[in-house]
Fold this sequence. Notes:
The structure is a single chain. By secondary structure, the protein is α/β, with parallel strands linked by helices. The protein folds into two domains: 4-166 and 208-238 and 279-283, 3-Layer(aba) Sandwich (Rossmann fold), CATH 3.40.50; 178-205 and 239-268 and 290-303, UDP-galactose 4-epimerase, domain 1. It has ten helices and twelve strands. It has helices at residues 13-24, 42-52, 67-72, 74-94, 132-152, 178-192, 212-225, 242-253, 277-283, 291-303; strands at residues 4-8, 28-32, 56-59, 99-103, 156-161, 163-165, 196-200, 206-207, 209-211, 232-234, 240-241, 258-262. Helix 1 (13-24) packs across helix 7 (212-225), helix 6 (178-192) crosses helix 8 (242-253) and helix 8 packs across helix 10. The longest helix has 21 residues, at 74-94.
Amino acid sequence: MTKKIVVTGGNGFLGTAVCKKARTKGYDVISFGSADYDLRAPESVSKMFEAYKPDVMIHLAAKVGGIGANISKPGLFTYENLLMGLNVIEEARKHNLSKLVIAGTVCAYPCNCPVPFKEEDLWNGFPEPTNAGYALAKKMLLVLLSAYRQQYGLNGIFLLPTNLFGPHDSFDLENSHVIPAMIRKFHEAKIRGDKFVELWGDGTPSREFLYVEDCADAFVSAIERYNKPEPINIGNGQEIIMSDLANMIKTTTGFRGEIRWNKSKPNGQPRRMLDTNKAKKELEWEFKTPIEEGLVKTYEWFSGATSPSP
């Protein structure tokens, strides 16, 4: 058994779930936040390695946000995600880390990629323009992991999670992803007694959503079972239309008003859904939590109360 696992971004959304899962499996897990070590600074990353001397590292720290944040700050999202990953990979090499697991993103796939997305499709086109900077920064880390494996023997693993949701997510409307943003909008509209909630786009795009604790299981499985350079998709293989998702969240939160779609706002990528056959084979992993159940758990965590019955 691995003696010590360090999780960057371990106090964040996915990190909280990964640390919890790894500890239940008996691993010695260390997590930290940006206040402890600045991953954008090489000297800070080096100090972190010297302090913790990990056997395995899971790199989850990232600068993330929804469509609006990616459109308004593409330079920042590209720069910081690339810089953090470069520093972590280089210091992992210097300190002879036995395994480095890095979280990629479903956004890295080409904009018009055939559904379901297969790992071999990753390089067949340019990502959706609204989040291309973030996506390409993540893809470059896969390139670097492959190069470091070839030249230095670094055992770098790259996982491609689909859109995640669950407790401890960010519900800030400027930086949050679609499910937490919708939950907050519907919840606050219910509290205020609003007659409608406005959502971006026209409701036609599709997405795939995975409950965060199921994703955490996949990361721990990768620590235990996977040592190959090829990336692996992490998802549930189920596609849902945004208008259907909105209605599900409306029901979950108990909002009884109208949904209005603002078609002047961007839709983002038309469709997203992952092929998860490789995860089933290589990681012996499959998702467990249906989206309806996950939404209830997420809303209960966010609101601090039992979700209203439909």
